[in-house]
């Protein structure tokens, strides 16, 4: 068996085990971590001028931020409208970064997502 394929399968099993046992709070953390990873991968692909992978990774980052956005319960908590707007802005900037090959836009979105994640992580620390 190809060693890289074996490693990917092992990682996939590990992440599946984590998600099946994770709390809703931890699942959101994992999404944010995944979004940051995809942005970093997109930035690397952009630097290498690897356009196909840049597009794939930015598309995945947009999907992850979209998933975070869809998880907001705006009907029961209207205070989340600002968070919804922030996620919408992040998705828009990721699409612009893709179209313009702009690493600074990726950095901007990563910075915003890091800030949101730090706040989310702090909530988890208080709950424990």
From TrEMBL:
Localization terms from the record: Cytoplasm, Cytosol
Keywords: Bacterial flagellum biogenesis, Cell projection, Chaperone, Cilium, Cytoplasm, Flagellum
GO cellular component: cytosol
SUPFAM superfamilies for the chain: Flagellar export chaperone FliS
Single GO BP term: bacterial-type flagellum assembly
Family indicated by similarity: Belongs to the FliS family.
Name this protein carries in UniProt: Flagellar secretion chaperone FliS
UniProt organism field: Pseudomonas cichorii
